[in-house]
Write a structure and sequence with these properties.
Layout: H1 2-13, H2 15-23, E1 30-34, H3 45-53, E2 58-61, H4 68-80, E3 86-91, H5 94-101, E4 108-114, H6 125-129, E5 141-145, E6 151-155, H7 157-164, H8 170-179, E7 183-184, H9 185-189, E8 202-207, H10 215-224, E9 229-233, H11 240-243, H12 245-257
Parallel strand pairs: 1-2, 1-3, 3-4, 4-8, 8-9
Antiparallel strand pairs: 5-6, 6-7
Helix pairs in contact: 1-2, 3-12, 4-5, 7-8
Length: about 260
Amino acid sequence: MRISNLLLSAALLFPGTAMAQVKAKPVKPVIVLVHGAFAESSSWEPVIARLEKDGYTVVAAANPLRGVAHDAVTVSGIVQSIKGPVVLVGHSYGGPVITEAANGNANVKALVYVAGFAPDAGESSLTLSSKFPGSTLGDTLTPIALPDGDEDLYIQTDKFHAQFAADVPAAKAAAMAATQRPVTLSALGEPSRTPSWKTLPSYMIYGTADRNIPAAVMKFMAERAHARKAIEVPGASHALMVSHPAEVAALIEDAAAAK
């Protein structure tokens, strides 16, 4: 009681000092989550629940999946609307999008790649996925022609579970297959520009049983980026945010808390 009274007296006598102490409290970064191809924003729900429980504000961006530069403008706009530090998190094709979106936004403090591409200048999702053998994605895709001559790509429903989310319960994987959002062929082939991971701290997590992006590709990118932390999850599929949300959330919080 005496300590409380002393603190109250100090606040009354020296209000500026008391306010300074309140303002000095570290501000937790806002976590901006960017889904990749064949997924959508709700795929982050298990991760969001953990982050919000730990006091983080989270925004799950709706990634248009139309092209790296185009999609990055959308995500960059979200970042610019946030008054304070931001951690950008990208899954799969969302990796190139956050890599581009971070450029020019000084409030981005870290990049987290969740089974996500971290391209260098001139690289694309297609070139990186084929850098090492192991991806079986091409054989599972169905293209749908678009009026502009491009194609929307979907994973065939009956192949979605094994290809994208093998360690997710069958019923959940079926729902994910039904709600998947297509990516354009041109988006996967679009060369990236300035690699922001060369100037920002990066963190990576990926599974050894990923059939979209081989683990060898992820390891290569993590080593090249000098990732502060790279976690390989044994037996995990491409849908890490659904099958291993605790590990994903923990890595994001590491990035958010790092000095």
